[in-house]
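User: Before I run my own analysis I want an independent prediction to cross-check against. Here's the chain; please return only the structure tokens and, at the end, one sentence I can use as a sanity check.
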Amino acid sequence: MKTYKIALIAACAATLAACSSTDKQSADVYQAAEKAVASSFQNMQPGWDKRLVQDQSQKMCTAARDKPSKAEGEFIEKLNQSFKVQYPADGKLIGDWKKGESIAQNGYGMRVGDNNPSRENGGNCYACHQIQKKELSFGTMGPTLAGYGKVRGNSDAIVKYTYDKIYNAQAFSACSNMPRFGHNGILSPTQISHLVALLLDPKSPVNQ
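Assistant: Structure tokens:
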């Protein structure tokens, strides 16, 4: 955590300095801040630094401060719709809601110190959503999902939409705050199917 704090302080200082600099100085400071962040993390898994490289969608959303124009938004959504969605090998998009609840509660993965390659990432869904009404601690960045299946049903179209939305939210909403769980390899297709079950299974506490 110490190296993380140092990197964060360096990035913040660079940002403040950039506010009062010329464009060229701002670019130089920005590059220096990125190098400071990249060099500050130690003992990370191989390939972790790829996460520092933005893809086209991320670059566009950053430039637009997550508020793209209509044309930009349509481009980003179509771009993400062109990416292949990987489904579970058995073809079943609805898994086990109990496993889905465990994944929704689990915040492990993609953080400094999460270096156990044998441990699956969690979805940390409650950080942004209310999912079941009995849960007292949840975030409000995303809409409530309580009663999700009760309201929408579980037709084939809704099942596919729910899976695809979790897999890559930006295919439906440009610059969405929701992670692209499947597209970025955060969750496996099987894990996503369990989250679909959590949202749609009539027996799930979400729909009680």
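Sanity check: Residues 11 and 29 are 9 Å apart (CA to CA).
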